[in-house]
Write a structure and sequence with these properties.
The chain is of the alpha+beta class and 60 residues long. The protein has 2 helices and 3 strands. Keywords: Ribonucleoprotein, Ribosomal protein.
C-alpha cells in the first residue's frame, strides 16, 4: 500500500498571499478543519512545506 498523508487546514487564509491560497486549494482544502488524504510524494511535500504554518500533517 502506498504511503499517504492526512492534511488538515488549521489556520485561516484571510490575509494570505495568492500563491499560498492557490497552494492550499491545490491540496484539496477549502474549509477550516477539513482533512484530505494525499499521496506521500515530493510534490505534495513541497506544497506542504510552502504552507506549513497553515496546516497539520499526519502520516498514514
Amino acid at each position: 500500500m502506498a504511503k499517504t498523508l492526512e492534511i488538515k487546514l488549521v489556520r485561516s487564509l484571510i490575509g494570505k498571499s495568492k500563491d499560498q491560497r492557490a497552494t492550499v486549494k491545490s491540496l484539496g482544502l477549502h474549509k477550516l478543519q477539513q482533512v484530505v488524504t494525499q499521496p506521500d510524494n515530493p510534490q505534495t511535500r513541497g506544497k506542504i512545506e510552502k504552507v506549513s504554518h497553515l496546516v497539520e500533517v499526519v502520516e498514514g
